[in-house]
Structure formats: C-alpha cells, structure tokens
Amino acid sequence: MKFTPELAFNGGRVRPLDYDDADALLALYQQPELPGQSIPDNSEAMSRLVDYSVQMAATQRGMMWLLEVDGAVVGMVSAFDWQPSQLRVMMRVDGLPALNIEQRQAALQVCMDFLAQKYHLRNFGYQWIQGQNPAITSMLASMGFSLCATLRDGWRVGNDGFADVQQYHLLRAEEKPKAGRLGEQDNPGQNLDKSFSGNGGNA
C-alpha cells in the first residue's frame, strides 16, 4: 500500500523515503540546520528512519518526504505531531545549503496543499529555532503564517545552552468537511491506492 505520495513543484519534487536513500539522508543530517541537533554517524539509523516514515504515514501520526531538486537530494519535508481530530499538524523542512528559500517554500507549500486536500488539515504549525536562517521567517510570513508565540529558551543547545523558539501557525480558509455515510464522500483515508469514488476501487 502507498501512504506517502510523490508531489511535483516548480523545479523539483518531494517523494517517499526509500532504503536506497540511507546514504543521502546521512549526508543531509551531517549538516543539520537546527542548533544543537545531534549528527548520526551511521546509515543504519537512516534505515530505521525509513521504517518510521512508513509507520507514521500509515497511522496518521506524520509524513516524511525526501526533497529533490534537479535529481539531487537537498532536503526533507516532515509533517509531525499530527492531530486528525483537531485538523492540526506541525511542519518542518531540513535542507542542505544548496536548497534556496524559493525551493524550500515551494516544497513546503505542495506538501501542505496535499495534506489539506487529502486529510482536511487546516491548522499548520511551524517552529523557527533561534540560530536558523532568518529568511525562513520571511518565507513563513509570505505564505500566510503568523507568529503566535515565542518560547523563551524553548530549545536545548548542547549540555548547557538554550535557544528561543518562535511558533508560527497558518489557519487555512477551506470549509471543514461535513459528516456523511461511509463511502458517500471520496475520501479513501490514508491508502492512496484505494478510492470510494465508484470506480471499482481503483485510484
């Protein structure tokens, strides 16, 4: 079954993680964007990350996409802390220096659009950690995010350091889904290969 889709954006694509991506993921996390983030030292941990990404998507706890530009892996988009009953999810983009702000925004937008359309998520959150690229905050503002809170010393850096966390949220304007009988609406849940649209179960 397919739980995470491949999505195209102008200049690149996001796609599900695969075991063959272990080395690319390891290279990505050798240059962490988040202050104080630990650096993995073997690809075995990255293989476990692939397993985790499938489990998260299958149980609607989160979703992970590998971010490619011109065929090269330059980042990853993550949706986590997924709360289906509250139509809420947190987003995150990890990127190499080669990922520019326009590509970051396009990848984030296409993933958010998918989650909003497929799962009716409406409340999207994003945390900017003090020390990250400040252009990310301008990007969030241009996408419609609002700064809702600042968590003073909310992020641990090393053994005795702390950084502030800026909490951004975006409330999308689409109408919330209405309750209906099973199969009445074309919403096949998390399995992207299944449909209730009356076409014999084919996507």
Characterization of this structure:
Helix content is 25%, strand content 32%. With 203 residues, the chain is α+β, with helices and mostly antiparallel strands. It has one domain (7-171): Aminopeptidase. The longest helix is centred in the middle third of the chain and has 19 residues, at 101-119. It starts with 6 loop residues before the first strand and ends in a 32-residue tail after the last strand.
Write the layout of secondary structure elements.
Layout lengths: L6 E3 L2 E4 L6 H7 L15 H15 L4 E7 L2 E12 L4 E8 L5 H19 L3 E7 L5 H9 L2 E12 L3 E11 L32
Helix pairs in contact: 1-2, 3-4
Whole-number tally of structural domains: 1
Q: What share of residues is helical?
A: 10-25%
Note poorly predicted spans. Answer: 195-203
Reported for the largest beta sheet, the result is: 8 strands, mixed
Shape: globular
Give keywords:
32% strand; 203 residues; Aminopeptidase; single chain; alpha+beta; globular; eight-stranded mixed sheet
Quick summary:
The chain has 203 residues and is an alpha+beta fold. The protein has helices at 22-28, 44-58, 101-119, 135-143, and strands at 7-9, 12-15, 63-69, 72-83, 88-95, 123-129, 146-157, 161-171.
